[in-house]
Amino acid sequence: MSQNSATQQIYLETIAAAGKRAPAGMPAWISELQARAASRFAEVGFPAAQQEEWKYTDVGPIARAGFTPAPKGLNGVDITGLEGFLFEDLSCHRLVFVNGYYAPALSQLGGLPAGVTVSGLADALSERPETLEAYLGRCLPDASHGFTALNSALLADGAFVHLSRGVSLEQPIHILYVTTDEAEAMLMQPRNLIVAEPGSQATLIEHYVANGEAAYWTNTLTEVVAEVSASVTHYRLQEEGPRAFHVGGLHVNLDRDSRFTSHGIDLGGRLVRNDLRSVLDAEGAECHLNGLSVLGGRQHVDNHTHIDHASPRGTSREFYKGILDGRARGVFHGRIVVHPHAQHSDAEQLNHNLLLSRDAEADSKPQLEIYADDVKCSHGATVGQLDADALFYLRSRAMDEAAARDLLTYAFARDVLQRIGLEPVRLQLERRLARGLLHGRDTKELELA
Amino acid sequence: MLSIRNLQASVNDEPILKGIDLEVNAGEVHAIMGPNGSGKSTLANVLAGRENYTVTGGEVIYQGKDLLALAPEDRAREGVFLAFQYPVEIPGVSNIYLLKAALNAIRKHRGEPELDAIDFLELVKGKIALVEMREELLYRSVNEGFSGGEKKRNEILQMAVLEPRLAILDETDSGLDIDALQAVASGVNALRSQERAIILVTHYQRLLNYIEPDHVHVLAEGRIMKSGDKGLAHELERQGYGWITQPAAGTSP
């Protein structure tokens, strides 16, 4: 038995056990979806480092740790315990998950306009199974990797958001995933489904936090379906615990003239892998992805993006930055595929990395596959130190060298944060980064721009 | 105020300045002119303390201090200001933040109280009118997306706010249209005073139509070849640099 199949066995047993526990009355299609995913996982197992897509990220530690699903319960989390994770001055709807399970007592879903459904996925499965059947799993590729398969096989709960035709949700939805200190060696695996019917609009914040320093694993998967002219703004704020593993999938399907914007911020976690796949499935779709990783110690964050320009006149923009200190490692792999008939596609990809220490490492890999002839595609990647000219400029304006270095480092990150439209979220992130990167210097005026 | 004695400097081991001597007194405006590659910008950068310029000989005494021994930020705090030929874009740092941080660092060094946000804004608004710069540029990232003219106006705004003792303008006039040139000149002229010295590094005489220098020096091949009053600038305008840089006709190939 190979190493992979040995570690895989633990998870296969977990899947089998979960199947026996499955609540009665689940629709047949969901059991079939789970069974298909289980056999897919049995077939592919965990990705191996020999695979091109995984060559910079060894997921062996995740596989070997043999994480088991967390039990349901609040584990002592109460509303005061959440305060540190909320955004000051942000009026929002709130969905809270504790160790992967929807916690209605901590959530706040009053005042939702007509035509908007926000709930736990498990509840949605019993309340409106026909809607879920139409969408769940629709965005996933047939040849999904083991993590995706595992999430589907163990699918239990997560966030469900449904926007009816033409509805605009004014306040954002803050989806908070809290992992508690009891979660040592546990697997959290939220499954989220966002459906935006034609002409609808919403903003969602997926926010991963920990209430302690347990070594746990979050294997999360989000599907976003944006129908004709819908607009979805999505945030993924990853502030997992220092020993946590986080594997995240974000699969987006974009219909005609729809628009998807995502801000992915990685600050926490020990080993993190994010796969973002966006299919521009009909004419005029737009996809804007911004990413920022600020890492130190032995943190490892791997961002894989895959944008499919599958129809004409699609626009995609990617802007990813990494700040790497200590022995941290940041990986960016940006794949853009422009299909043969996707004429007038317009794609731009940028990845910039700042190394603050000799032992930090950044790996940047753009991968453009263009099969149409009338397109505009560009990419750029840099790995380097602070700009010497900028450093001299600041020093020539009386700023001492250490302060100038810190300011430029902070500014490098802020360049991404400034694209964030929700001011309370942007300010909170700016303050958090400023505290770390500016070493306690006065930052009030920095907020002016 | 400033004594430059036999200053020699090189960039990447290539000697650029080969013995500069220059005396600048408070209240004076000096123009340093010269052909491309003569070392004008090197001189400006060496005075401001840019790192990749290596001083290989000579000395610079500024207000009784060894200027070359000071870090760039300490020079700035002592009142030296360089207006950059190519102002750097710094995304993520607001223009007004930089201005305030710079001013307060200098005030602190002088033992003056730091300005609060309200007093500071009042001060800046007064100065911004002088260089005819759009106020919204204050709240943008430093020089990011600024036009060439806006970048130069921004340099002059910084100079006006920081009120240096010694201002060095490195080709501030290059690439400016006439409106921007006049705005830059009025900013510089407003700063002229008996306590302050200004060094204008320029390739063209044009700027000197708006800022009248007390002394004009021609720098070529790393040395000051000729010094004179503003009449020298006019002569250069008519005749070019050839008659100075190649004085003995026939000796050059």
Fold and architecture overview:
The complex is a heterodimer of chains A (about 450) and B (about 250). Chain A has about 450 residues and is α/β, with parallel strands linked by helices. Chain A has 2 domains: about 5-280, no CATH class; about 385-449. Helices cover about 25% and strands about 35% of the residues of chain A. Chain A contains 10 helices and 21 strands. In chain A, strands 1, 4, 5, 7, 8, 10, 12, 14, 16, 18 and 20 form an 11-stranded mixed beta sheet that branches. In chain A, β2 (about 95-100) and β3 (about 100) form a beta hairpin. In chain A, α9 runs antiparallel to α10. The longest helix of chain A has 19 residues, at about 5-20. Chain A is globular. Chain A starts with a helix and ends in a 12-residue tail after the last helix. The mean pLDDT of chain A is about 90. With about 250 residues, chain B is an alpha/beta fold. Chain B has one domain: P-loop containing nucleotide triphosphate hydrolases (Rossmann fold, 3-Layer(aba) Sandwich), CATH 3.40.50. Chain B has 8 helices and 12 strands. Chain B has helices at about 40-50, 70-75, 95-110, 115-130, 150-160, 180-190, 230-240, 240-245; strands at about 1-10, 15-25, 30-35, 55-60, 65, 80-85, 90-95, 140, 165-170, 195-200, 215-220, 225-230. Chain B has a 6-stranded mixed beta sheet, with helices on both faces. Chain B has a 4-stranded antiparallel beta sheet with strand order 2-1-4-5. In chain B, strands 7-8 form a two-stranded antiparallel ribbon. The longest helix of chain B has 15 residues, at about 95-110. The relative contact order of chain B is 0.18. Mean pLDDT of chain B is about 90; it is low at about 250-253. Classes of the chains: A alpha/beta (about 450), B alpha/beta (about 250). At the A-B interface, α8 and α9 of A face α2, β7, α3 and β8 of B.
